[in-house]
Amino acid sequence: MELRIRVLFTSVCHTDLIYWRGQDKAQRIYPRIFGHEASGVVESVGEGVDDLEIGDHVVPIFNGECGKCVYCKSKKKTNLCEKFRVNTMKSTMSSDGKCRFSTEEGKPIFHFLNTSTFTEYTVVDSACVVKIDREASLKKMSLLSCGVSMGVGAVWNTADVEEGSTVAVFGLGAVGLAVVEGARSKGASRIIGVDVNPHKSSKAQAIGITDFINPKDLDKPTHQRIREMTEGGVDYSFECAGNLDVLREAFLSTHDGWGLTVMLGVHPTQRLLPLHPMELFEGRRIVTSVFGDFKGKSQLPHFANQCIKGVVKLDEFITHEMPFSRINEAMQLLSDGASLRCLLHF
Hints:
The protein is of the alpha/beta class. It folds into 2 domains: 2-145 and 314-345, Quinone Oxidoreductase, Chain A, domain 1, CATH 3.90.180; 148-290, NAD(P)-binding Rossmann-like Domain (Rossmann fold, 3-Layer(aba) Sandwich), CATH 3.40.50.720. It has helices spanning 14-21, 138-141, 147-159, 174-185, 200-207, 222-229, 244-252, 296-308, 327-335, and strands at 2-11, 37-45, 57-60, 101-102, 108-109, 121-125, 129-131, 166-170, 190-194, 211-213, 236-239, 260-263, 285-288, 318-323, 341-345. The strands form 3 sheets. Strands 1, 2, 3, 6, 7, 14 and 15 form a 7-stranded mixed beta sheet that branches. The chain has a 6-stranded parallel beta sheet with strand order 10-9-8-11-12-13, sandwiched between helices. The mean pLDDT is 95.
């Protein structure tokens, strides 16, 4: 039930940065091959795999779908899988608890997020591999492994944003801008982008924000400014920064009675939610979204076709391209906030 994939394109995501830096001390599992946003071609197929074959164009996904467990059969209740759900602690293959990578001396090199794509060849459980139309650009389809699916899916599936709604997006990295793209495609009437990096404004405007707020320029809390701009608060807010103080601002920026906050940022610290339980009685809600609530194997091919048709525009997300040998430069670009997705090719 495994496949070997020849990786053609991969990119660096903030999650890779977080675990590469060891920001979560409990998850310092080394040596390890990072990377989880990629596309490639099936090079060989293991026993028991009947839905993929050699030569298929594919994207690996960190949140798998076996199709058989009670979670996968739950239809709309969850997109988690009992065995192949996202798990940053998981570092071996599911079938035997062993690694498929090793050093020249035979010592194990551990896996990451069900995928490990910073390598020319990777071995992945078939539940974590999605077949893509061969007419699609593998370069662009690599974005569907994580960032774009996360952001657009959070708008389409998790929040189900209606036409004419007001939206605030906190953190304008790749995931945040994917939220903007999703809100634009849904016909949101106002999309407010929030980021402390002033250089994010022009890219966000090109994708679809109507307003830009830099909290450093304000003399009041960001949520107060957004409430003033929107007659009480936005209908939906999305936290894409991985910062609990930002999460609180996002929560308070929504309209009481019906406001919904969707958390997308990765929070590596041990701090707990900065909310008092009684604040929830004002009608605001907070949820999170895993992989944009897409069921990977069954729903991602349709989403890919929508991207091919131009419903979702992918070109703006690729800001840099370079050979894989320059991966350190790509990591630095993302760390400095100078790139959205730096596409690496072998």
